[in-house]
Amino acid sequence: MKNLIDRVSRIEIPTPFPVGNVNCYLIEGSPLTLIDTGPKTPKSLAAIQQELQTVSYDLSDIEQILLTHGHIDHVGLVANFVKKRAHVHGNPTDVWVHELDAEAVVDYEKYMDHYMVSIVKLIAASGVPKYESVMLAHERRTELFKSIGESVPTARSFKNNASFKTGIGEVTAIWAPGHSPGSTCFVCDEQQVIFSGDHILGDISSNPSISFDDSERIGMMTYLESLDHFSSREGYIAFPGHREPILDIPTRIETLHSEYDDKLQKAADSLTYNPQTIYEISRIVYGDYETNSLVLALAESYDLLRILESRTQAKLIKQNGVIKVIKY
Ligand SMILES: [Zn+2]
Q: What does each C-alpha distance from 199 to 163, 228, 289 come to in angstroms?
């Protein structure tokens, strides 16, 4: 556990994902608050119990859990807290999540079924080689995902601008869709800190394209628009869902915009008058990525192409169920 500012400490919890550890934040005072919990693995549970013990707390002492978004590396352990507190104190922990991510917490199985169907659709439309083995890997991944989460029927949902009492003062929920439909940053103006979840990360991408299916808005566009809500927060520190705090938020946002502009340019440059698949474009834009990054690379590439289509630089066509792109 690392003390960051008065009453706020970071707890790093291991995850089974390439991203590495996830950050949870303990806010001491009343009500005793935790921001995010980590995934439900024996290793993560042991880690968070051990860390809380160093300041003489138990899972049942946490009175309020605020969730930055519904992804499993951030919410999997919530049920353990809730059940432990209900057992010891007779009432469950207050758990809050944005209404658009609520299903992931309240009914995890149903959420996973929806999510995995949209990924299957994406893989099928992308023209990936060795389709069967990719689908097999996807099924194995689905099993892993299902095993590290648990529904919390008592979780409650909030809307944009909801406010919560914590030991460091009032915290306001600023809705920032993109990384997930209900992604939220919790802003404490009194302390000038933002618990930014996976919306603003220090040195890794936010993967803004994996949580919207193609009938909805383009995830990447939504994400970039949401970033701008925070570009005037000079002097604030962001405590992100992974890695180190971000001390200069406006500069980080500028860098993220220019990184996405570069990707968009790369995608535009790769277009030809011969039809190409999403998979082929992903190999040009993202290079020689590992197979466990395939879905992320396909999702981002598809978003880039849809943005280019909206700017009439590309034309997307469907041939035998596979999406192909040509230069417009
Ligand atoms: Zn995350």
A: 19, 11, 23
Dihedral of alpha carbons 220, 171, 49, 152, sign = negative
pLDDT digits (tens, 9 = 90+) for 177-193: 999 999 999 999 999 99
Mean pLDDT of the chain: 94
Options 3.40.50.1240, 3.90.1150.10, 3.50.30.20, 1.10.10.10; CATH of 256-327: 1.10.10.10
Give tens-digit pLDDT for 41-71: 999 999 999 999 999 999 999 999 999 999 9
Q: Which two tokens stand for residue 130?
A: 């060795």
Q: How far apart are CA 95 and CA 65, in angstroms?
A: 5
pLDDT, position 291? 84
Q: Calculate helix-pair angle for 219-227, 249-270, nearest 10 degrees.
A: 150
19 CA to middle of ligand 1, Å?
A: 8
131: CA distance to ligand 1 center in Å?
Answer: 27
Ligand 1 centroid–CA 39 distance in Å is 10
Taking alpha carbons only, the member of 104, 102, 82 closest to residue 91 is 82
Residue showing tokens 């991510």: 101
Query: Hey, where are the domains in the chain?
Result: 2-102+152-253, 108-146, 256-327
Strand 169-175 and strand 163-166: the pairing is antiparallel
CA of 207 to the centre of ligand 1 (A): 9
What ipTM did this prediction achieve? Answer: 0.95
| Cα–Cα distance measured from residue 122 to residue 209, given in angstroms and rounded to the nearest whole number | 11
Measured between alpha carbons, how far is 68 from 179 in angstroms, rounded to an integer? Answer: 11
CB 241 within 8 A of CB 72: no
User: For the domain bounded by 2-102+152-253, which CATH number is listed?
Assistant: 3.60.15.10
Compute, in angstroms, the gap from residue 44 CA to the centroid of ligand 1. 14
